[in-house]
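User: Here's a structure from my thesis project, written as structure tokens. My advisor, Dr. K., wants to see whether a designed sequence matches the one we expressed. Can you design one independently, without my sequence as a hint?
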């Protein structure tokens, strides 16, 4: 046998015995400049969006989809000791379109949006708000929230404060625009009827995907179609005033927003970071000569598909919320 073949066979066997490299997401880092979060682990050439981090910092969940988002599932990364396990699809996800995870402030319930059949009606394909409780070793069986919340239209992006009040996105007759942010108070174990936030937050344009902090004093959301917008959808914020109302929403500025869609905000209060999804891209300005060059551009992380971005709160107009 050719000695060169022996060498390469031995080399390949050695490679096969090497442990797979796991890239750890450094959740405690506080970047002063906006960065793509966890490249090749969370942010990839596929479409990633709407990430949430468990209050204890030992799990993060995000949505990953195909380029056209015909397939979308909830992806989990769990920390065991000082290292992280490989990414896995949550056991109840992968069959339907599951998106937009959000942990209850105590970490015991995960909320998400899904188009799975609801209330035993197999004909339903609209998006509704679901929840699943933490059980020993993982998560239990998802269940839909009350029909006072879940209508036959779409409900998206659940966000829950420590007192149980729920914020979500919907299009309803009692709203202000094309999409609006609604909230339901939680009282005596039940959700009350949804109410649209007033015109200091909602407008005739699109308002969607609102994050609320556990104390229900900060709201971060996206809007498209406002006069002060920078492009395909911008991040805004509002603060709770002493009389219980929300302040007039303010754009988070060009340092965070781009000409592309910027949405799905989440704040890791423990580490002091803002996360959000963006479709921004390093636009190719040259001329392609070979088909492989097109493939190469399409498979870059900054290819215009959604990625998760991160920046320290101290480097944003939100720095006073910690």
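Assistant: Designed independently from the structure alone:
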């Amino acid at each position: 046998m050719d000695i060169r073949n022996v060498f390469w066979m031995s080399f390949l066997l050695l490679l096969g015995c090497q442990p797979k490299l796991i890239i750890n997401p450094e959740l405690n880092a506080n970047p002063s400049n906006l960065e793509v979060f966890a490249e090749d682990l969370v942010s990839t050439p596929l479409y990633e969006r709407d990430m949430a981090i468990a209050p204890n910092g030992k799990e993060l969940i995000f949505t990953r989809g195909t380029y056209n988002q015909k397939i979308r599932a909830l992806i989990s990364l769990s920390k065991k000791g000082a290292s992280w396990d490989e990414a896995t699809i949550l056991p109840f996800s992968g069959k339907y379109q599951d998106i937009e995870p959000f942990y209850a402030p105590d970490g015991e319930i995960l909320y998400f949006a899904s188009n799975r059949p609801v209330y035993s009606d197999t004909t339903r394909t609209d998006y509704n708000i679901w929840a699943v409780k933490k059980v020993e070793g993982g998560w239990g069986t998802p269940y839909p929230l009350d029909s006072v919340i879940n209508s036959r239209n779409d409900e998206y992006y659940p966000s829950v404060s420590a007192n149980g009040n729920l914020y979500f996105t919907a299009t309803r007759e009692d709203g202000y625009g094309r999409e609006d942010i609604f909230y339901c108070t939680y009282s005596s174990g039940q959700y009350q009827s949804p109410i649209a936030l007033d015109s200091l937050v909602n407008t005739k344009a699109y308002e969607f995907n609102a994050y609320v902090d556990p104390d229900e004093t900060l709201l971060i959301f996206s809007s498209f179609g406002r006069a002060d917008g920078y492009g395909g959808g911008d991040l805004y914020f509002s603060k709770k005033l002493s009389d219980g109302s929300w302040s007039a929403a303010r754009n988070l500025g060009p340092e965070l927003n781009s000409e592309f869609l910027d949405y799905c905000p989440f704040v890791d209060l423990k580490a002091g970071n803002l996360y959000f999804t963006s479709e921004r891209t390093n636009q190719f300005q040259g001329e392609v000569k070979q088909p492989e060059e097109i493939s190469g551009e399409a498979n870059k992380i900054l290819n215009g598909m959604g990625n998760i971005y991160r920046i320290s709160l101290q480097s944003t107009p939100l720095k006073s919320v910690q």
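When you compare it with your expressed construct, this may help: Residues 32-321 form a domain with the Neuraminidase fold (CATH 2.120.10.30).
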